Structures are given as C-alpha cells and as structure tokens.
C-alpha cells in the first residue's frame, strides 16, 4: 500500500560512529542501491520473521496516511516525554511524518508513524486538562489555537486522522501518583524507584523520583 525505501546500513568502525552528524551535503554523496529483501535474506542465509509473530499494532498499516505538510497538531516531545508541544507536519513519506516544533530549529524535528499514540489533535491538551508548551515567543497562558491558525494561515489536522483516538482501550489500572520500580532505559542495568506521572488510555508515564523529566518514558 505504501512505498518505503529501505537502505542497508553500512558497516562502520565504532569510533567513526561517535559524534557523527549527518548533513544534506554528505547524504547527497551516498550512493544508494536498490533494496531487495529476497536478495538480502538469500545473501545472509536468513529467514524473515513471520507475520504471525507481530501484534496487530505492529503489522502493516490498515489505513492511508491522510496527514499533509503544513497541518498543525499537538504531540509529545521525545526528549522530554512529559511535555506536549505545538507541532507542524513538515514532511510525509509513506506512513511516516516528520514533525517540527514551531518556533524552534529543524534539528529538533522527529519522525513518527501516522497512527502514533504520541500525537493528538489541536485542543486535546485543553480538553484533557494538560499543559501545552506553546511555540517559541508565545506565552503559555496567552496561546490560543484559533488565533494561531489564523496567524499562520494554516489549519489543524482533522481529528479523524488520529487513529489512536478511535481504537478501543481497556480501563487503565494505574493511577497518577502510584509508586513502582522501573528499569532506567538510559542505564538498563538499573532498576529504580519511580512514580506514575500521567496516564493516557492504556499507557502511563514513568517518572524516576528526584530526577528531571528527561529520564521519563511511556
């Protein structure tokens, strides 16, 4: 249903991988070769993981990606998972979206699937009582979606595009404030004291007690 280009990752020395910064200049000089799963599996004498091994959410997309460049939405900051920010769609490839933090450099852009649980329609934070981080230059208590769309001459992404809003979820058993033990994803050898900082549908936000939110994760 969707055309996605797969590139074989080149083998590189670990030392060269450190502090590596990609740029449009270097990327343009990389010679791409046509990708073939059949050829790759044959070369590696390997077997592809069967479809039955994947859950429904991990399987092939069942809906078309209706997001368009310029659409506005709200979403989780991947570097600060406790924060919801104003985002713009700046690129669409297949079922993937590149999202941009309005008012900030593009080096902070990030990619998500169109059905990601990390993105929400404009106005979702206000409706659910969550704090929304406005674009740079806007005060938090003065930001208004209607005025912002008018100022930007663009529109918010329609609610029907957010497939995560339409699926059935079980009632969450965790509540904000509950204590638990959790693995530190940045240091997986550590299991630390943590709290439930937020609950959305069937997911909850892990916060490590007495640490900043850069270590939080869903």
UniProtKB/TrEMBL annotation:
Keyword hit for Transcription: yes
InterPro entries membership: Mbt, PcG_chromatin_remod_factors
The keyword Metal-binding is assigned to this record: yes
Pfam annotation, one family: MBT
Localization per Swiss-Prot or TrEMBL: Nucleus
Any GO BP annotation: chromatin organization
Residue ranges of coiled coil: none
Gene Ontology molecular-function annotations: chromatin binding; histone binding; zinc ion binding
Entry's Gene Ontology cellular component terms: nucleus
MBT repeat feature ranges: 35-135, 143-218
Domain of life: Eukaryota
SMART domains for the chain: MBT (SM00561)
Record's keyword terms, sorted: Chromatin regulator, Metal-binding, Nucleus, Repeat, Transcription, Transcription regulation, Zinc, Zinc-finger
This protein's name: Uncharacterized protein
Species of provenance: Albula glossodonta
Organism lineage: Eukaryota, Metazoa, Chordata, Craniata, Vertebrata
């Amino acid at each position: 249903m969707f055309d996605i280009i797969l590139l074989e990752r080149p083998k590189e020395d670990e030392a060269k991988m450190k502090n590596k910064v990609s740029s449009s200049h270097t990327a343009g000089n990389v010679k791409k070769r046509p990708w073939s799963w059949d050829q790759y599996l044959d070369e590696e004498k390997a077997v592809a993981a069967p479809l039955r091994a994947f859950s429904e959410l991990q399987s092939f997309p069942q809906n078309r990606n209706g997001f368009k460049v310029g659409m506005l939405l709200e979403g989780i900051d991947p570097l600060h998972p406790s924060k919801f920010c104003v985002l713009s769609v700046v690129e669409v490839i297949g079922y993937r979206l590149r999202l941009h933090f309005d008012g900030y450099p593009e080096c902070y852009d990030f990619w998500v699937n169109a059905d990601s649980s990390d993105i929400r329609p404009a106005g979702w934070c206000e409706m659910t009582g969550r704090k929304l981080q406005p674009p740079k230059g806007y005060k938090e208590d003065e930001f208004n979606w209607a005025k912002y769309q008018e100022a930007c001459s663009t529109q918010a992404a329609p609610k029907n595009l957010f497939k995560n809003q339409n699926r059935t979820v079980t009632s969450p058993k965790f509540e904000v404030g509950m204590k638990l033990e959790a693995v530190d994803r940045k240091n997986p050898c550590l299991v630390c004291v943590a709290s439930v900082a937020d609950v959305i549908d069937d997911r909850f936000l892990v916060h490590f007690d007495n640490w900043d939110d850069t270590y939080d994760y869903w």
